[in-house]
Amino acid sequence: MNNASEISRALAEQAEAFCRSWLPAGRKVGNYWIVGNKHGDPGRSLAVRLKQSAGRKPGKWVDHASAEHGDLLDIIAEQLPSPTWQAVFSEARRFLGQPGLRSIQNTVAQNGGTTNPDRSASARRLLAIGRPVQATLAERYLRNRGITRFGPALRYHHGVYFRDETGQRRQLPALLAAITDNAGNVTGCNRTWLDPSRSCVASITEPKRVIGNLAGNAVRFQHGSGSDDLIAGEGLETVLSIGTVFPLLDLAACLTANHLGQFIPPEHIKRLWIARDNDDAGATAAQLLRQRAEELGIAVFDLTPVRNDFNDDLREDGDSALRARLLSDIEKAREVEQAKA
Questions:
Q1: Rounded to whole angstroms, how far apart are CA atoms 191 and 185?
Q2: What confidence score (pLDDT) does residue 196 get?
């Protein structure tokens, strides 16, 4: 291993062991190591991919707050007092020379890790055994959050497995949401585990997790044939809050700020309304999506909540107030569009 590419590739093969060593304040969530930033501080902004998934390489990371990205050599460089390439390579070789790295990876696999790079098939199987959300705990959960718009993308299952922070395998009921690409193919499934006694999100580490391929895709809610307008937002509950006050609009829930920025808009739409969260990560994601959509000739407009997200606004202000405010914002945006024409 005499060049950066070879060393980076070797580190990526040991991504989980690397993260446990260099980013110990983080934790494993599905196929990612979640931590605060590239310096290793506690938090949830930075995600390192641990294994190849849907053709996307392991060892790559993205900071959702800053939109920075890189590989594991960059992580080493950020944490060295004198980050020359010689020093970075030396630390990387030292780490790779440790005994037991392969046994760590084998232990992970034996404890339930998967070597399947494409988990879309597992997502489709899970959705197939789910049932419609009507008259289930999932419907009660959504209605408790003021949401009354559902759709065929949503399913419910009374006992979906997950691993808790101790590595134990457990079951809880879950709201399932089908992730699809622009052709309508199911590429993944979002799982929201629920507390059966309180009809709210379960009190577990990372109660919302994706299986399959989310990048570029979304959970979609459509009414009839494809509209010229599409509202794309972050969280499922955020997007469905807008759908509650506008039941006929087409919606796309990208589930995270990072994936909102990666969303690929359908070619047929003429106007894209970005319903971002009211924080720095949301603003960064909206700007990335705006750039991509405008390059496709799509007119882009921002919709920003008063509070953190539109579900907060719905629950605090009610559907009538939220509808009136969004209608006002949409009308103003249309007037600007007409003035430019």
A1: 18
A2: 94
**What is the C-alpha separation between 109 and 93, in angstroms, rounded?**
24
Report the C-alpha gap between 283 and 261 in whole angstroms: 10
Determine the Cα–Cα distance for residues 62 and 265; give it in Å rounded to an integer: 21
Judge whether 38 and 70 are in contact, CB under 8 Å: yes
Please report the DSSP string for 307-335 in residue order.
SSSHHHHHHHH-HHHHHHHHHHHHHHHHH
- Note the Cα 323 to chain centre separation in Å: 26
41-55, 56-70, 88-102, 145-159: segment of lowest average pLDDT: 88-102
Q: Which residue has the higher pLDDT, 252 or 94?
A: 252
Contact in structure between 301 and 272 (CB atoms under 8 Å) = yes
Torsion of CA 196, 259, 64, 28, to 10 degrees: 50
Decide if 310 contacts 241 (C-beta within 8 A).
yes
DSSP code, position 81: S
d(CA 155, CA 37) in angstroms, rounded, equals 34
Q: Which residue has tokens 């990072």?
A: 258
Q: Tell me the backbone φ, ψ of residue 320, rounded to 5 degrees.
A: -65, -45
pLDDT band at 151 (very low <50, low <70, confident <90, very high): very high
Q: Are 261 and 296 in contact (CB under 8 A)?
A: no
Owner of token pair 């909540």: 305
Q: List, as one string, the DSSP characters of 117-183.
A: S--HHHHHHHHHH-B-STTSHHHHHHHHTT-----TTEEEEEEEEEE-TTS-EEEEEEEEEEEE-TT
In this structure, the strands spanning 251-253 and 229-233 are parallel
